[in-house]
Specification:
about 220 residues, alpha+beta, four-stranded mixed sheet, 7 helices, 4 strands, about 10% strand, globular, Thioredoxin-like_sf
Length: about 220
């Protein structure tokens, strides 16, 4: 039996969605973030040494990292579903976007989250203006332009086909959902990029996505 070690408001929501799209049975073991630090609880280290989510276990096999989990599930249980045929341009794009989501797209969004917290966190009165000024400078000169560059790039890519790998919905679209959800929640993605906003609307309407939300629980990035 596949077990998803599911951390609230995390990338593991994508794993639940993929499992629902594949129609696989699975169990969920739930973990809650520390409300102050927002870090995963130490219990996750019993499953994987890094103590992070997502991670799954499947008959003694432990797989971490969302891209690796997606590849494992597709290779093991997909039977050709949610992946284009080998040797095609669609397959090349599938592989690229499966890894681009975490390898490139999430980096500036994570940096923005960190510097937003630097800007707003409590601090001594004589330190706070300095911290705020540094955070605003880094965001304005580097982070926000980087996010805009990625969003412009992705908007153009969805101008070529309705989904990231081509004309068919695949696991690459599931993987790409998290950075786009994060960009919509805190990274400036809005109606000025209609193809990306349409992508989010389309994935939210998928029955498997909705089933994953029902099983996974509240997902703050969607709010």
């Amino acid at each position: 039996m596949i077990v998803v070690h599911h951390l609230n408001n995390s990338r593991s929501q994508r794993v639940l969605w993929l499992l629902e799209e594949l129609g696989l049975e699975y169990e969920i073991v739930r973990y809650q973030r520390d409300p102050k630090t927002m870090l995963a609880p130490p219990e996750l280290k019993k499953i994987h040494p890094l103590g992070k989510s997502p991670v799954i276990s499947d008959n003694g096999i432990v797989v971490a990292e969302s891209g690796a989990i997606a590849e494992y599930l597709i290779d093991t249980y997909g039977n050709g579903r949610l992946i284009p045929p080998a040797g095609t341009e669609e397959r090349r794009r599938w592989t690229y976007f499966l890894h681009y989501a975490e390898g490139s797209a999430m980096a500036p969004l994570l940096m923005k989250l960190i510097f937003d917290r630097v800007e707003t966190s409590p601090a001594p009165f004589f330190v706070k203006p300095i911290a705020r000024g540094i955070a605003q400078k880094v965001k304005g000169s580097y982070i926000l332009p980087q996010i805009a560059t990625h969003l412009d790039y992705l908007e153009a890519e969805l101008g070529k086909a309705p989904w990231f790998a081509g004309n068919d919905f695949t696991a690459a679209d599931i993987q790409m959902s998290f950075p786009l959800e994060a960009a919509s929640a805190r990274g400036g993605l809005d109606g000025s990029r209609p193809k990306l906003t349409a992508f989010l609307k389309n994935i939210h309407s998928r029955p498997a996505f909705q089933r994953a939300l029902e099983r996974g629980g509240p997902y703050e990035l969607l709010k």
